[in-house]
Write a structure and sequence with these properties.
It comes from Methylocaldum marinum. InterPro entries: Glyco_trans_1. By secondary structure, the chain is mainly alpha-helical. The chain has one domain: Glycogen Phosphorylase B (Rossmann fold, 3-Layer(aba) Sandwich). 51% of the residues lie in helices and 11% in strands. The protein contains eight helices and five strands. The strands form two sheets. Strands 3-4-5 form a three-stranded parallel beta sheet, with helices on both faces. Strand 4, helix 5 and strand 5 form a beta-alpha-beta unit. The longest helix is centred in the C-terminal third of the chain and has 19 residues. 19% of the residues are buried.
Length: 175
């Protein structure tokens, strides 16, 4: 999160209509350090909302124009999938396995560095609203196609059928 706050200090005054909301639990116990960093950087448009769930999380996602996950390591990054499913384009660092956001043109998959994040955020924040919405729509479509219950059930059925009866290897299985 410190990389995001450091990047934001270069951008918040350039984009007066944008604000940064940081949501989530205080994993690792360093939330107070991040609040102190935001204060030291004199960031005026940052809000720490803590953990949110249910309807509150849904409302935050629906009101968001962009989701950012700067991470050293995530095994999946469920919050990325949630943002995409709500039609929010994403910026995700390469510590999370979300390289396909670029294939689906619904976000950016970038190296984890302050400079790279500044450049990516600068480009994203300068985009027209409609372009960001189109990216979000593509992400939502991708999530429905790949991760909806009906999609998962169909893949399970086809996988078990392949295991029992043979035939062509399903595309989602890597051997």
């Amino acid at each position: 999160m410190d990389i995001l706050l450091n990047a934001w200090r270069y951008l918040e005054n350039r984009y007066p209509n944008w604000e940064l909301t940081i949501a989530g639990p205080d994993d690792g116990g360093y939330l107070s350090d991040m609040k102190q960093l935001a204060s030291a950087l004199q960031l005026g448009k940052v809000e720490f909302v803590g953990p949110i769930y249910g309807k509150q999380k849904e409302n935050l996602l629906l009101s968001s124009d962009l989701y950012v996950l700067p991470t050293h390591s995530e095994n999946f990054g469920m919050t990325v999938a949630e943002a995409l499913a709500h039609g929010v384009p994403v910026i995700v660092t390469k510590g999370a396995p979300w390289q396909r956001v670029e294939d689906y043109r619904c976000g950016w998959w970038i190296d984890l560095s302050e400079e790279t994040l500044i450049t990516c955020l600068d480009n994203a924040l300068a985009m027209e609203d409609q372009e960001l919405r189109s990216m979000g729509d593509r992400g939502k479509t991708w999530m429905l196609q790949q991760f909806s219950w009906s999609s998962v059930a169909e893949k399970m059925e086809r996988t078990y059928s392949w295991l029992l009866e043979g035939g062509e290897l399903p595309a989602w299985i890597d051997l």
